[in-house]
Design brief:
By secondary structure, the protein is mainly beta. The chain folds into two domains: about 180 residues, Roll (Chitinase A, domain 3), CATH 3.10.50; about 150 residues, Roll (Chitinase A, domain 3), CATH 3.10.50. The chain is built from five helices and 19 strands. A hairpin with a 7-residue loop joins strand 2 and strand 3. About 10% of the residues have low confidence.
């Protein structure tokens, strides 16, 4: 088995889809047209293996496609709404050599006892790296679906990404993809009026939030405001939630607002999963963040200002957040696992 570190990490970080992507209908799979259709190459691949495990694939070799001629064939149907522009998608995949059929690597499944990170893509319609066939193939797929993509290394992962591992741009790859889950890439709830004494949240087109504090007086007590009211499931204690957030330290009078924390999820445009449990109760969330999330609905955007007593325990705060810092967080509640 030949492992390719560049292959394993190529999409372990969030990827961004370029502007040429066509959107999908939210009305169901019947109104959604996948980017790629089935063909002779993807159709002759026989896939086996249990769901949520690295697949095996059998096909005649050499299997060859040309650049720009990617093909997709569904192996197992999924359920629910189709993946659309703007969604974040969690998925796993196993890659095989079209020339010899051997397994090259996997992302999201354990290989030889070593698990690799689940891949993730944020399917946005602007900015970011040039789209790849692997990312484009996710459009209109559904949660739980497994399918086979046959594509060149250049088309699937980008020109030159795998050459250091002995895989040429023109080499054909057979990629078996399993969609784990998908959810909106930003809060999509109804806009609500701001609260007096709270910062204004300015949201970019892609959903990334910024703050305007101006000459506000720093709150001495925990303040929670719903900026966008979602209509999804209610967050309960112990649930695992998909979140995007930005965090700031309330500036000293007359000082500019500092940049958001480096580890905020909007930095790499990838959601993170958190168990809704406070540090006061053995969890990982600061009390102010925990109190804000409890009872919120999926699709909501929350604005939270919490003083040090509701903040991070000693040693657990992000860089730049001191023990006496008043913290401001903007949290998008994207879904519940």
């Amino acid at each position: 088995m030949r492992k390719t570190p560049a292959l394993l990490s190529a999409l372990a970080a969030a990827a961004v889809l370029a502007a040429s992507l066509a959107g999908c209908s939210a009305g169901g799979s019947a109104g959604c047209a996948p980017i790629y259709g089935s063909g002779d190459a993807s159709g002759i691949v026989t896939v086996s293996g249990a769901a949520k495990t690295a697949a095996t694939a059998d096909f005649p070799t050499p299997l060859v496609v040309k650049s720009g001629s990617s093909q997709v064939t569904q192996n197992d149907a999924g359920t629910g709404s189709p993946i659309q522009q703007g969604d974040q998608v969690d998925f796993e995949y196993t890659v095989f050599s079209g020339a010899g059929g051997e397994t090259l690597g996997s992302s999201g499944f354990g290989m030889s006892g070593a698990a690799t990170p689940r891949a993730a893509a944020v399917l946005t319609s602007s900015g970011g790296q040039k789209s790849t066939s692997l990312i484009r193939s996710l459009i209109c797929r559904t949660s739980g679906e497994r399918y086979t993509l046959v594509s060149t290394a250049k088309d699937a992962f980008g020109a030159g990404t795998l050459t250091a591992n002995g895989i040429a741009n023109s080499d054909t790859l057979v990629i078996v993809v399993e969609v784990e889950d998908h959810f909106p890439g930003k809060a999509d709830g109804a806009d609500l009026l701001p609260q007096d004494g709270m910062p204004d949240v300015i949201t970019a087109v892609d959903g990334q939030p910024g703050l305007v504090i101006q000459e506000l007086q720093k709150p001495a007590e925990l303040r929670i405001a719903t900026i966008k009211a979602g209509s999804g499931a209610v967050v309960e204690k112990g649930a695992t939630v998909h979140l995007k957030y930005s965090g700031f330290v309330w500036p000293a009078p007359g000082s500019p607002l500092a940049d958001p924390w480096d580890d905020a999820t909007w930095t790499n445009d990838r959601a993170a999963d958190f168990a809704v449990k406070s540090t006061d109760d053995g969890g990982s969330l600061p009390p102010g963040m925990y109190k804000a999330l409890l009872g919120a609905k999926a699709g909501s955007q929350l604005l939270v200002v919490f003083p040090p007593k509701d903040g991070f325990p000693a040693g657990s705060a992000p860089s730049g957040v001191d023990a006496d810092s008043t913290v401001v967080m903007v949290i998008d509640v994207l879904g519940i696992a």
